[in-house]
Write a structure and sequence with these properties.
Layout: H1 4-8, E1 11-15, H2 21-31, H3 38-46, E2 50-57, E3 64-73, E4 76-84, H4 93-107, E5 112-118, H5 122-130, E6 134-139, E7 150-156, H6 160-167
Parallel strand pairs: 4-5
Antiparallel strand pairs: 1-2, 2-3, 3-4, 5-7, 6-7
């Protein structure tokens, strides 16, 4: 397995554009039991609250290997989707993608982010925990396809000025 920094040598990260939607939908369809449609992604691109980033394969320009998105709600980001093409799983693409998206959110003034994750998705939970997210609640029977619970996870960045106040 490569590190997140070595994956950076293999991919290019950018904001999602309409030309990426077909590739995003391919990843979506191979990742989720109830995938979003092309129309849903088009709607997200015109939603002023939505931000989506894609990872493109440097060896195959324009080929989407992963994507993630969030809604900007005041100073919080609500992560809507994170998915990696099956051929790229286990190569730290999700870690790199999440780091890039979290940096974008921070640059927009967001100091916390939240998401829902299937109770059974231990790999995703491990990734989110590694990035500083913690479980803070449960949404019972959240997923329509099988009624599975969702864990609600939050990332809360401590502002330096608050840290200085509490540490004195």
């Amino acid at each position: 397995m490569g590190s997140a920094s070595s994956i950076a040598d293999e991919v290019f990260v950018c904001l999602m554009e309409p030309k990426h939607i077909a590739g995003v939908c391919e990843v979506e369809n191979r990742s989720f039991a109830v995938p979003w449609t092309e129309r849903m992604f088009h709607d997200e691109l015109i939603n002023p609250m939505a931000r989506y980033v894609v990872l493109l394969d440097k060896q195959q320009p324009g080929h989407v290997i992963a994507y993630a998105g969030y809604w900007k709600i005041f100073d919080e980001g609500h992560i809507t989707n994170v998915a990696v093409h099956p051929d790229w799983r286990g190569r730290k693409a999700a870690t790199y993608l999440m780091q890039q998206m979290m940096q974008l959110a921070a640059s927009e003034g967001m100091n916390s982010m939240t998401l829902e994750v299937r109770r059974s998705n231990l790999a995703a939970q491990g990734l989110y925990t590694k990035l500083g997210f913690a479980v803070e609640g449960v949404r019972p029977k959240y997923y329509e396809d099988n009624g599975e619970d969702a864990l609600i996870m939050w990332y809360r960045a401590r502002k330096q000025e608050e840290a200085d106040t509490y540490d004195n």
